[in-house]
Structures are given as structure tokens and as C-alpha cells.
Amino acid sequence: MTCSTSAEICSVCKAGLTVDTKTGKCICVTKDPLGCAKCTLNPKICDVCKPGFKLDHGVCVCIPTLASCEICRESSDVCFTCKAGFKLTNSVDPKDNKKVITTCVC
User: Fold this and answer.
1) DSSP string, 32-59
2) What's the angle, vertex CA 59, arms to CA 2 and CA 63, rounded to 5?
3) How far apart are the first and last CA of the chain?
4) Of 14, 73, 81, 93, which is least surrounded by CB within 10 A?
5) Euclidean distance between CA atoms 28 and 39, whole angstroms
6) Could you tell me which residues are beta bridge partners of residue 87?
7) What is the pTM of this model?
8) Rounded CA separation 38/94 (Å)
9) Judging by beta carbons within 10 Å of its beta carbon (0-12, 13-18, 19+), is residue 69 exposed, middle or buried?
10) Which residues, in sequence order, are bridge partners of residue 3?
């Protein structure tokens, strides 16, 4: 890591870290860009999750917004596994008619 001693502003960081353009400090490069908003020193352990995700032992997992969804994927409105009595189906995203989403139906 190469930093200015007077202001602790870094220009080069050790492997797994990158310079934060706002603060000039070394921060970790998240390995889970879909869910992790911030990690400190270890790129495999997340400290803060993006909205729609919750922290579970250093990993961000999405929070399903659909009552019929058991496990979501990538975002809270894309279901991966449905609860008992429901099945996965593809449908057009009402927000973007060019995008297909996976949801659960009876």
C-alpha cells in the first residue's frame, strides 16, 4: 500500500483492496457485487449489504419480496425457489416489459 503519510491518502493498495475515490483510503473489493455494499479488510466478508439484502455471517443474501418465494436470486423480486404449494414461472417484468422475471404461482 502506498499512502501519503500526512493525509493517509492512498494511491496503491495491497491485493484485494482498492482506493476509495471519495476518501482516498484502501477498502476491500467486494466479491459479491449484487448484495454487498461495503466490506473492510476482507473481500470475502461483507460488513454492509445493499437494500433488499440481509447480512448472514458475512454474506449478503436477498430478502424475498414475494410471499410465495422461499429463496430469491440476484434481487428480492427474482425467485429461485418457491414455498411449498407454489411453482416457478417466467413472466414479463411490469416495470420493464423487455425483462423476464421468475416468480412463484399456485
Assistant:
1) -TTTEEE-SS-TTS-SEEPTTEEEETTE
2) 135
3) 55
4) 14
5) 6
6) 105
7) 0.55
8) 30
9) buried
10) 10
